[in-house]
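User: quick one, fold this
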Amino acid sequence: MEAEASPPVGSPPCCLWFQRPGVYKDEKGRIWVAVALQINPSHRTRGRGAPASTHEVSITVHLWQLPPDAQSPSCLLVSGLPIKWELYPGRRYQGTDSRFWEIVDHGQVISTENLILKRLPSGSH
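Assistant:
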């Protein structure tokens, strides 16, 4: 038996604007909620003359688009997320802090559209 494919979700939002901690609104007025946040320290090797390694935090955020009739769940206490994300070519967003976020996944689970973004290391374009 073949697994059923998820219905197509179209393009990711062009912009996501901060509404309150962990809650964003897109250009169509849809509400997106940060339902999971992964924060991992990472080590990055530097060139000659620089310290052997520096610490940079890797952040991955899972956003779910709520149906219009759904009530907003209690929000995560979220820090490190930008006030606004703007879609750029190459499946990535740029935040108001000028950092880029890669779209790891954009799909639908049951009837909930979801978007997973991972912050790229500083200096990534």
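User: anything notable?
Assistant: Residues 15-44+53-119 form a domain with the Proto-oncogene - Oncogene Product P14tcl1 fold (CATH 2.40.15.10).
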